[in-house]
Amino acid sequence: MVSYSAIYSIIAYRVKEFFSEYQYSLLAPITTNLLFVLVFLTIESYYSLSIDSNSFVQFIAPGLIIMIVAQESYNNPSVTLVNMKQIGSLDDWLLAPISRIEILISLLISTIIIGFIIAICNLIIFSFIIDIQIYNYLFFCYYLVVVIIFFSCFGCFVGIIFNTWDTQSTFSNFFVTPLNFLSGTFFSIAYLPENLKFILYYNPYYYVIKLFRSCFNEKFIFQVDQNIYILSFIFVSFIITAYVYFKGYSIIK
């Protein structure tokens, strides 16, 4: 039987914790993105950059939103779990009348809520600086959920298997950050050399950024094959993470 009250309690606790630590959890990522926009606005004013008939800043703004949501979706659950291991409070969750899968679901749902808050805050601030408009709200939300689920699954996986901050930050620095920077956040695939384009063709995260960016374009086209590829990858990521939680590993008894 599903323990809805326990799931709700974990979600409420994590969202409350997110707002109580707003300097780190909300203001820091917003400030980072704001600095990116200001730097590129300055560069654009000197060099008149443009991509796909839009200004360069308009092009990268959706990518920046996705990037910061992805980073925080990884950091939030992984930091929570590692911190709970460090102070020993994870045992309280494990002893509570809630299954390990329900703990995973609680972490994913709370991260989705937090990710949407970060995305909307960034979007509102961007709207005061640059001309940015969403034309397809349904797929805007859909691709946000896809990104959050993937990176939060990865964060939950790292957080439950590893016990140290060094490992958590290593995955962030050598996987999450490079993946964000090298998946089309700041550039179009059309400007890459032909011998490098294959890297993005097989990168599902590139298609997420590409399709999320198209939600800010009036000519949005839903690509069935690309979305099947994305969802297949997300499904595999969730199954692997759920399997680890179900079977138990290291700290999970």
Task: Provide a brief overview of the structure.
By secondary structure, the protein is mostly helical. It contains 10 helices and 2 strands, in the order H-H-E-E-H-H-H-H-H-H-H-H.
Secondary-structure map:
Blueprint: H1 4-20, H2 22-47, E1 50-51, E2 54-55, H3 56-87, H4 90-95, H5 100-129, H6 137-161, H7 165-181, H8 194-201, H9 204-214, H10 224-247
Antiparallel strand pairs: 1-2
Helix pairs in contact: 1-2, 1-5, 2-3, 2-5, 3-5, 3-6, 3-7, 3-9, 5-6, 6-7, 6-9, 6-10, 9-10
Structure description:
This protein is 77% helix and 2% strand. The chain has one domain. It is globular, with a radius of gyration of 19 Å. With 253 residues, the protein is mostly helical. It has a two-stranded antiparallel sheet. The longest helix is centred in the first third of the chain and has 32 residues.
Keywords:
253 residues; mainly alpha; 10 helices; 2% strand; globular
Strand residue content:
under 5%
What spatial order of strands do you see in the largest sheet? 1-2
Oligomer: single chain
Largest sheet: 2 strands, antiparallel
> How helical, in percent, are the residues?
over 70%
The global form is globular
Mean pLDDT reading? 87
Which structural class fits the helix and strand makeup? mainly alpha
pLDDT < 50 stretches? none
Whole-number count of domains: 1
Helical segment count: 10
Order of helices and strands: HHEEHHHHHHHH
